[in-house]
Hints:
- The protein has helices at 33-41, 54-58, 65-68, 86-97, 113-116, 128-141, 160-171, 194-203, 217-227, 255-273, 277-290, 297-305, 309-324, and strands at residues 11-13, 16-18, 22-24, 47-53, 77-82, 103-108, 146-151, 177-180, 208-211, 231-234.
- 44% of the residues are buried.
- The strands form 2 sheets. An 8-stranded parallel beta sheet has the order 3-10-9-8-7-6-5-4.
- The two termini are 32 Å apart.
- The mean pLDDT is 95.
- Helix 10 (255-273) runs antiparallel to helix 11, helix 10 (255-273) packs antiparallel against helix 13 (309-324) and helix 12 packs antiparallel against helix 13.
- The chain is an alpha/beta fold.
- The protein has 2 domains: 11-249, Alpha-Beta Barrel (TIM Barrel), CATH 3.20.20.70; 254-324, Non-ribosomal Peptide Synthetase Peptidyl Carrier Protein, Chain A, CATH 1.10.1200.
Amino acid sequence: MNSSNQNIPILTLGQVPIYxxxxxxxxxxxxxxxxxxxxxxxxxxMSYTEFINAREWIEGYPGIxxxxxxxxxxxxxxxxxxxxxxxxxxxxxxxxxxxxPDLIDINMGCPEKGIxxxxxxxxxxxxxxxIARIFKRLSRSLKVPFSAKIRLGWDEGDLSTAxxxxxxxxxxxxxxxxxxxxxxxxxxxxxxDLNGIAEIRRSVQIPVIANGDxxxxxxxxxxxxxxxxxxxxxxxxxxxxxxxxxxxxxCQVPPHTVLQIMRDHLTLMLEFYGDPKGLIIFRKHAxxxxxxxxxxxxxxxxxxxxxxxxxxxxxxxxxxxxQDQ
Length: 325
C-alpha cells in the first residue's frame, strides 16, 4: 500500500519537495521527454533525464539538446550527467544549471563496458578520489541541489567501494543517493541485493532510493520494507506499463486505457521528434505496450514496420479492439 500523503512530502531535496514514493529511473534511449511526461502524469514523483554525456555536450553532439529538453509539468526535473573528468562535469553542470533543473545527478552506475572502462558511470566507483574531487567542486559551484546514482560496487561481495562513494557524496553536500542493487559486473543479470542497498542506506544520513527488480506492484513495498528506503526507482518494468506508477499491474489495465495512453505517447513523440522519426523511435515503446497480447508475428510486424503515423494508429485501434472483445 502506498503510504505517501499527497499533501506531505516524503522527501525534501534542498528546497524541492517530493510527494510520491515511486520514481522513473533514468534509462539511456528510453527516458526522453515524452516517456517522462507519461510516467509523471501516472504518478512518477520525479523526472530524471537520460544521461547527458558531458563530452558530447561540450562537442555539440547532434541531438544532445533533446537529452535535457523538458516541460514544466515534469517537475521536479533531474538532469543526469555522465563523465569521469571533473573539469568537464563542472563545466557542463554550470551551463546546464542555467536551464533551471531542480537537481543535477551524477551517473556512477552505468555498467556499459565502453563507459565504465574509461572511468565513467560505474567506473567512478573504482576512483574515490575522483568522486571526491567532483562532489567537492559541485558543492562550491552549483546553486541547485545535486545527487548521485550508484551501484553496489564493481564486484560481488564487496560493498566497501559503494559505501565509501555514498559517504563521499554525503560529505560534500549531496542531497540524495539512488542505489541500483547490482554490481557493475552483474550488469542487469542476477537478483538485486536488497541487503546491500539497506547497508548503504544505514551508512549515510541523506535519503537513499532503492532501484532494481521491480516487476509488479507487490515488489514495491517488499523492497521498501527490506531496504528501509522511503522510495523506489523503477526502470525496465515501466516500459510498456507506465501504470505501475499508479500502482497497477499491467493485467489490471483495460485495453481501451492502453490505447489511449499509446495514442497520447505517440502524439508526444511526434511533437518532440517530428514525423516519421517520432513514430520510428516509438516502436520500441509500442512493442512493450503490446507485449501482453497474443498477437501473430504478421500483425505485430505490420504495425511495427509502418512509417505512416495515421496507418499506425488505424492498425493499433484494430488490434486493441480485438483485445476488448
